[in-house]
Write the structure tokens for this entry.
Amino acid sequence: DVKVTQSSRYLVKRTGEKVFLECVQDMDHENMFWYRQDPGLGLRLIYFSYDVKMKEKGDIPEGYSVSREKKERFSLILESASTNQTSMYLCASSLDGTGLSPRWGYTFGSGTRLTVV
Amino acid sequence: DAKTTQPNSMESNEEEPVHLPCNHSTISGTDYIHWYRQLPSQGPEYVIHGLTSNVNNRMASLAIAEDRKSSTLILHRATLRDAAVYYCILRYQGAQKLVFGQGTRLTINP
């Protein structure tokens, strides 16, 4: 089975800190994604990457950046954490990098619950 | 993006079948219908997908209307572990991202 592993299950950070959320997948998937999930707002896409060193903004990229130096690893960076970034962060990967094969599904990690105080 | 409409919540009893509906009246010919579920405190999990024909796998069945404007996810014999939020999502050719709606919160009574 494909596994998507997020480095931390729970994280507490202070306002203004630089925060790194790490995600690793083990099945050579091309696409990787970062979502955040908030009550009443559902899952919202922050950034995604369809290849090494490539990235695309999602629906809510402000305050975030990403890094993909290796195919298996996709990092989400909060440059200066703020309390409104307290959320559940979910990483996902998908085989299909072009969107030309919409039959392929996503595999999600278990999530990182980040609290910024 | 074509939209889907699902009931906010549904309730069923353990060991009974569950039919979760999804309307997608603006679906286009190349849209795949995907279902995911999210268990409490977990990330979403792929359940099943289809294009035109009904599909079965070990988790569930997907029944797609002939005009493709609606579909139904069928859990044949619900267990307490099936309590989750179920998302019906359309994925079109060329779409690199999944767009999640609010889903249906399924409660299973013992």
Summary: The mean pLDDT of chain B is 91. The interface with chain A takes residues 30-32, 34, 36, 41-46, 49, 51, 91-103 of chain B (CB under 8 Å). The CA atoms of residues 41 and 83 of chain B lie 12 Å apart.
